[in-house]
Amino acid sequence: MTATIAASLAHLVTEEETGRLRICRGDDCEAAIVDLTRNRSKLFCDFGNCANRAHVRAYRARQAAKRNGTTAVTESSEASPNSGAGSKRKLEKPSSAEKAEEINRPTSVSAVAAKEFRDRMREELMDKRKKKSKTSKKS
């Protein structure tokens, strides 16, 4: 099993796919995952039921916010002159940039270390590509 994992990691490194290595985004889970999806969108491990728990938590938070009337107010509803006490408030949805930032934000010590490793590997790769392109232009 160790040899299979080592071979798989070697394959990811040689194919320059180290960005596919992640840590599960579950609150209490630090499982390492390899994202083999086409669009590289896997966030949770398969064996910890982390995705389901995260979705249930988000749903329950939305429902509680609706019941309590503590939903976030959008800027457009605050700025409109016709927004009185009886107007409905809308949930403020995060932009795609905010979602991407949240996904890339490490949640544990091991995730921070993994992110630093990926960044270092990416910098080394980019330096190597620059050197390679400079030598090919001189030829």
TrEMBL record:
Region (Disordered): 62-115, 120-139
Basic and acidic residues bias (residue ranges): 92-104
Record's compositionally biased regions (Polar residues): 68-85
A Pfam family of this chain: zf-CGNR
InterPro entries in UniProt: ABATE, ABATE_dom_sf, Znf_CGNR
Compositional bias per record (Basic residues), positions renumbered to this chain: 128-139
Domain Zinc finger CGNR: 20-63
Coiled-coil boundaries: none
Name assigned to this protein: CGNR zinc finger domain-containing protein
